[in-house]
Amino acid sequence: MSVNEKTQRELIELINKEVKSTLRSIELRLNSIEVSLAEIKGKLQGLATSWQMFTAIVTSAVASWSAGAAIVFTLLRFAPK
Predict the structure, then answer these.
(1) CA triplet 11, 14, 17: central angle to 5 degrees?
(2) What is the C-alpha separation between 43 and 36, in angstroms, rounded?
(3) pTM (predicted TM-score)
(4) I need a labelling partner for 45 at 20 to 30 A (CA). Which of 13, 18, 36, 61 fits?
(5) CA 1 to chain centroid
(6) The pLDDT value given to residue 1
(7) Cα–Cα dist 27/33, whole Å
């Protein structure tokens, strides 16, 4: 093997190591993105439940206030004068 071939082989090995290092870095960043997306997905799935609870509470409160207002107006209308 000549010196030129040895130099080329060393250069190829060096480039190979650099490419592997870069790919590892990309893999780590992709794993980080995957974790972040999983967190967002979990929050969005929980949002539907939170929205349903909020709507149920508001609807119950409005229904109670409406019923109370109806009773008060009825009593005031038929109250002796």
Answers:
(1) 150
(2) 11
(3) 0.51
(4) 61
(5) 58
(6) 64
(7) 10
